[in-house]
Amino acid sequence: MSTNEELIGRDEINDLEAILSIVNTDADAAIRTVADNAEAIFTWDYEKGKRPALNKLYEKAKGAMWNGETDLPWDTVVDQEQVALANAAAQGGIEQGMDLTGSPLAKWGDKEWLQLGIEFQNWSLSQFMHGEQGALICTAKIVETVPWIDAKYYASTQVMDEARHVEVFAKYLDTKLSGHYPINAHLGLLLDDIVEDSRWDMTYLGMQIMVEGLALAAFGFMHQMTTEPLLKQLLRYVMSDEARHVAFGVLSLKEYYAELSDAELLVRQEFAFEAAVRMRDRFMQQEIWERMGVAPKDVLPLLLENPNRLLFQQMLFTKIVPNCKKLGLLDANDGWLRHRFEELGVIQFENLTDTSDEYQAFALGEAELNSQSA
Ligand SMILES: [Fe+2]
Ligand SMILES: [Fe+2]
Prior knowledge:
63% helix, mainly alpha
């Protein structure tokens, strides 16, 4: 059994100094190279529909494609300041419920809080875009490495979906917002770990279950909160694809994990825990504070106790926890992952609906599909 030090590089999960010491060291580079260590697998078993649930997902995906250039109302005028103000109002004010006395934020006025809201949008959409590129790369890898033809077929549709997602987030950032952020260091570490792993199921576990499970929850939160019509529709369309992707992960791994030994499952549980911690750390958003001219270590202890923020952080795990349960990962090895999710304060979501059951609820309706390319 691995120690915290081996899994996440520190003993104490909440060691703020250690968390903040992880920074992006190649932020100015134009590309990043990661060895993917995997063998490409051909299969000679072409029987379509041998795995009916995956086949059904593939048939659905073929009919659910949309066009990021022509199906979204790109002529919408976006006033980013108004959007930031509306978001802050929806949350009852960013600083609500915090005692700022003695902190660098005590002397902030409306101007600084507004700028923080703008940076938050630039940062969030940038991280979504980078995560989408991670999904694009991981899914292309799954096409090569998964041994089942039904899964190769489905994964190929996901590659197209992810290209579209990278495209629309990049376009939104470039034409509607006011600046990019480089990839967050914690997200970058996680994507590297996923891509580097040689085992095909680890790509699924890291990407479809953990990263996309979190993305589905985060997109849902932003979709509900934003009053900006273009972003609302963009997120609605992306979520309709994303729910299928998470279902693809659950359906594929359910079959595979049923055959694994406890020792093999433990490695998967540890990987899920590492991914969960990295994603939680990413939401410390240390780069935003640096850009605002405030040392993250001076404000984060305050923010981490903010009840609104705690709720937001927990909400990010509403898809991940029930999906891990469905895969048998919570309770294997005397509940190893269950205990870790208890420590992270997210175990209460274990009985929510898992995504293999609910993905169809996210599908675009007839009216939405028919209005496309009109
Ligand atoms: Fe995506
Ligand atoms: Fe996806």
